[in-house]
Design brief:
Structural class: alpha+beta
Distance between the termini: 37 Å
Helix content: 25-40%
Strand content: 15-25%
Largest sheet: 7 strands, mixed
Number of strands: 17
Strand order of the largest sheet: 11-7-9-8-1-16-15
Amino acid sequence: AIRRSKRLCQLYTLKRCVSTTKDKGHNANVLRKGDRGVEKPIYMWTKGVEVESTVYDQIQRISTLPIISPHIAIMPDTHLGIGCTVGSVIPQKNAIIPAAVGVDIGCGMIASKTSLTASDLPDSLKSIRSAIESSVPHGRSNHGKKGVDKGAWKTGRIPNMSQEIWNKELKSEWEQIISKHGVLEEGNDIEHLGTLGTGNHFIELCLDESQNVWIMLHSGSRGVGNRVGSYFIELAWKDMKRHVKNVKSDMKEIAYLRQGTDYFEDYIQAVSWAQNYAKHNRNIMMVNVIHALKTIIKQPENWTADILAVNCHHNYVNFEHHFGEDLYVTRKGAVSARRGELGIIPGSMGAKSFIVRGLGSKWSFESCSHGAGRRMSRTAAKKVFSVEEHKEATRGVECRKDKDVVDETPGAYKDIDAVIKAQSD
């Protein structure tokens, strides 16, 4: 199922959230050493927000790793993840947990404010949705196999912009990476550059409080990033077994690569490359969506989409300085929120989204949430919600309303207002 990537187009209110909270103190609940078996403190911005009990078990296990310093930060959209918790900000000393970045490396958001207003849009949005769907490959077929995946460009028919960016920005370093790790070459790479993907990846139109039209999309490094992430998660476990005595098998999903060991520098290169790929991928799609909209919206003439643009990762690693230490900080489902920095926190398909300006909270390692966060798993959502309930929840929204997108229905996500309130500092 494609979920939001098959609906592709939505209208809702886009708000700006700016808090006046001072940097002194924080709004987090704190688990100290000894609480629930925690080893390093865990700061959780979850007041007034639902949190699965399994999340506590997962972050407790991560807190026992000797590389964590000085504490872990958990965002209000947190939920159980594969290996590492979604909504986690984990500072690591001289090491990196590949699973704390995940397999959708560089996944993130891009939003562009246009010169259009609501009155410039047609009464029916179906033609806009169709134009966007035609301009950006989306979904997945044939197990994502190269050459036959509907969510990829056809081999030999790569658009000029994707080809030019690949040749100029990505190809050379990718060849260096696969010269050492040839297995990573097996699959789509350039064929996914400028494509959306599946899961909760989406493209949509939004209205802000002044009725200005925004274009927003969510995607990452696609198949090639998935291969990089999965491959190095396995290598981290092999490496950890060689360097850590009596390591338990249940630590496999949070295995880390320590600086100076065999694959650490190779991972740094590969994950940085995938993050760069993801950013280019979003930029290309944004350009193609704008071109598609111009075929439908012809008045006013020469409308633009460059008034304000934000492009941010929310699954990535970065080398940063916090609390007097140089650290590798992984954000899995979290956004950088340095003081004055713009970010994007999208809501569910039936809710508002927020363009935010960071306050630079040192306790969160200058981070904020990456969305509303799931209340339940996809499997659970399909059991809880019916197609009719999904239709009602998305009334007035131009999107798919069938059984294959029920797991992305608004009720499967947390209340975005509560998520925003919990991180007002």
